[in-house]
């Protein structure tokens, strides 16, 4: 399949009073046309920063893209001047944010907020833009869109606002939709509806979706492929099947074990002990070493090279290395 | 909306009545009378004068007479300037005071917003520090000090602007500058603070994600939300500009309402005190009312009319 977006060795750092935080430390992944790629990981692992970097929304200063490439349509977005960035944002790559309660401007009508996106990117008459916006609201399941256009965000519920955010993001028919925790602020029933909407829209428009989340339940429902991030790096990538049924990185396994299961009565919830490393001074080796039950000496010194387990499945873990297989005995045990 | 406005109008009338009543009794409880002078007046003449102005009647009767004339918008005659009525004084003085006040308010709002916005956009940069230095100076320097300084420098030393009176646009520059600097500084600081807050809001990030230009983001998305706190102080700022005109009019020898107001108090010229007080209060109350209306226009979440179905 066609690669629509290639992120190569992306590095993002933020300058703070305490020093430089290396939020993203060399992230590499491809996004295929029409697929949903989920980036999962715990808070602070750099998944949101990665998505903001793709949108060119890293606040600078204090943040900056310290290295790497983001290749979209044969162009490296990281070297794009701000003015050209604006032509990409909202038109080719769109974004949906976590909290629909605050992501819409309270003083502008919903219709205006949708229309201004089209007018910014396309040469189009206002009446036509309006008609397009109404169509889009129809598509995302807003009843009576004609009259809803004239209303303000506070007159909508949380789920409805997220639908409006989706309509706003899709109005210029972007090729990539980045959804940063799109369902986290919603309750579970609404969450299911929004995920259903994502799938529906993808079927109709063929848009590629990058889904940023920490919720493995969401991932299981919609993702085609999954990238697991930890401490600013992608530690394991694979298809949904591979990640859920054949996880190879100890962190991925830990994540899966810490999800409550309703289908197994006696299954105990196993948390991952410890906490993620300090990204002011990230470890040179595998960042998961201190929390890993099977950590070896080499783990704390050298970052694991990539091991290709299948066409789609790659993992960064020394346990997968030919030389480590027989030695795979835990040396550090966390009680 | 109409019912809201009617309700507010009623409340405004009550407020005005309270102000009138309080001022009336307070001013009459202050010792002294319009005829307390160095030279002794003939007793018969004094009696006649007091009878003419109803000053010999009990206070509640005087109050009744005054209120009666007030509802017909007749502010009565001036006691001290016997040929003058308070209405005539207002007609002469108010247009000039209003002109000064209005130009000042517009200048303060425009320049204050401008300074505040560029300071917020260049947060912690040179422009920010410069704008805030100007603002702090503007707040710290009393307008009468600034006025004399401006006259000394721009009128006396360099002779760019005329030093006093109110005739041409050139005459208006110095008094307006002196009067507008304080309110401008307050508006600038408020605008900066609320702009900085608004610019970190999620919906600003959403607007950026749409690919909008920085100009559109600032003016369409940020400014409107940042204006709310600024609008809040506009009512009281208008009041401070009004009272500020007293001093500035005196310094620049502007024939506005201010001098009547100040003179009338030391003269115990009751009708003039009452007339000017009522007039100023009315303006202030109307300003506050306009501010509330502006709220509803700026922020759709603030509903001025009754909720439907109640």
Task: Name some characteristics of this structure.
heterodimer; A: 335 residues; alpha/beta; Rossmann fold; 8-stranded mixed sheet; globular; disordered C terminus; B: 310 residues; mainly alpha; MetI-like fold; flat; cell membrane (chain A)
Sequence stretches where pLDDT stays below 50 over 5 or more residues of chain A: 329-335
CATH fold naming of the domain at 98-269 and 288-298 in chain B? MetI-like fold
CATH class of the largest domain in chain A: Alpha Beta
The N- and C-terminal alpha carbons of chain A lie at a distance of: 45 Å
Total of helices of chain B? 11
Number of strands of chain B: 0
Biggest interface, CB < 8 A: A-B, 29 and 21 residues
| SS strand fraction of chain A | 15-25%
Q: What's the gyration radius of chain B in Å?
A: 24 Å
Biggest sheet architecture of chain B:
none
Tell me, rounded to a whole number, the average pLDDT of chain A: 86
Secondary structure tally, helices of chain A: 10
**Domains counted in the coordinates of chain A: how many?**
2
Helix % of chain B is over 70%
Residues in helices of chain A, as a percent range? 25-40%
CATH fold description of the largest domain in chain A: Rossmann fold
Protein name (chain A): ABC transporter ATP-binding protein
Membrane topology (chain A): Peripheral membrane protein
Main location (chain A): membrane
Organism (chain A): Peribacillus psychrosaccharolyticus (Bacillus psychrosaccharolyticus)
């Amino acid at each position: 399949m066609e690669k629509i977006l290639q992120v190569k060795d992306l590095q993002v750092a933020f300058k703070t009073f305490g020093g430089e935080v290396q939020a993203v430390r060399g992230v590499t992944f491809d996004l295929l046309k029409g697929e949903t790629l989920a980036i999962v990981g715990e808070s602070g692992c750099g998944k949101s920063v990665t998505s903001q970097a793709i949108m060119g929304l890293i606040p600078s200063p204090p943040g900056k893209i310290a290295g790497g490439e983001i290749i979209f349509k044969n162009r490296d977005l990281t070297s794009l001047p701000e003015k050209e960035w604006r032509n990409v944002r909202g038109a080719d790559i769109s974004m949906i944010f976590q909290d629909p309660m605050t992501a819409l401007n309270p003083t502008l009508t919903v219709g205006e907020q949708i229309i201004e996106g089209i007018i910014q990117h396309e040469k189009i008459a206002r009446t036509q833009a309006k008609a397009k916006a109404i169509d889009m609201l129809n598509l995302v399941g807003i009843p009576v869109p004609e009259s809803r256009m004239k209303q303000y965000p506070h007159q909508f519920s949380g789920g409805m606002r997220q639908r409006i955010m989706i309509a706003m993001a899709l109005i210029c028919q972007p090729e990539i939709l980045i959804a940063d925790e799109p369902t986290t602020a919603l309750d579970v029933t609404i969450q299911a509806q929004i995920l259903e909407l994502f799938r529906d829209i993808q079927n109709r428009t063929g848009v590629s979706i990058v889904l940023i989340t920490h919720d493995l339940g969401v991932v299981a429902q919609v993702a085609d492929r999954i990238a697991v991030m930890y401490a600013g790096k992608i530690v394991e990538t694979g298809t949904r099947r591979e990640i859920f049924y054949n996880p190879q990185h100890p962190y991925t396994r830990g994540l899966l074990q810490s999800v409550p299961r309703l289908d197994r009565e006696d299954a105990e919830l196993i948390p991952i002990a410890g906490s993620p490393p300090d990204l002011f001074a990230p470890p040179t080796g595998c960042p998961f070493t201190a929390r890993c039950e099977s950590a070896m000496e080499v783990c704390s010194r050298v970052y694991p090279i990539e091991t290709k387990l299948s066409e789609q499945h790659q993992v960064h873990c020394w346990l997968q290395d030919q030389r480590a297989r027989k030695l795979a005995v835990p040396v550090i045990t966390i009680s | 909306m109409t019912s809201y406005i009617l309700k507010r109008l009623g409340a405004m009338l009550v407020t005005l009545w309270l102000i009138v009543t309080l001022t009336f009794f307070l001013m009459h409880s202050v010792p002294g009378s319009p005829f307390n002078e160095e030279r002794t007046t003939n007793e018969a003449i004094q009696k006649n004068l007091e009878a003419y102005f109803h000053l010999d009647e009990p206070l509640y009767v005087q109050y009744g007479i005054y209120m009666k004339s007030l509802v017909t918008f007749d502010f009565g005659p001036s006691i001290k300037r016997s040929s003058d009525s308070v209405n005539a004084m207002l007609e002469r003085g108010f247009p000039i005071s209003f002109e000064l006040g209005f130009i000042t308010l517009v200048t303060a709002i425009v320049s204050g917003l401008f300074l505040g916005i560029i300071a917020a956009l260049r947060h912690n940069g040179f422009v920010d520090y410069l704008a805030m230095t100007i603002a702090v100076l503007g707040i710290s320097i009393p307008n009468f000090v600034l006025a004399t300084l401006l006259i000394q420098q721009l009128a006396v030393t360099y002779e760019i602007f005329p030093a006093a009176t109110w005739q041409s646009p050139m005459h208006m520059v110095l008094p307006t500058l002196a009067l507008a600097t304080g309110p401008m500084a307050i508006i600038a600081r408020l605008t900066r603070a609320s702009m900085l807050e608004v610019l970190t809001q999620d919906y600003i990030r959403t607007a950026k994600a749409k690919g909008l230009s920085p100009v559109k983001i600032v003016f369409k998305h940020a400014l409107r939300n940042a204006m709310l706190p600024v609008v809040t102080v506009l009512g009281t700022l208008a009041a401070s500009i009004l009272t500020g005109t007293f001093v500035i009019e005196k310094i620049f020898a502007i024939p506005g309402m201010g001098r009547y107001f100040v003179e009338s108090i030391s003269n115990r010229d009751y009708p003039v005190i009452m007339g000017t007080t009522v007039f100023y209060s009315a303006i202030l109350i109307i300003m506050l009312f306009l501010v509330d209306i502006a709220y509803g226009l700026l922020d759709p979440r603030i509903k001025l009319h009754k909720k439907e179905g109640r």
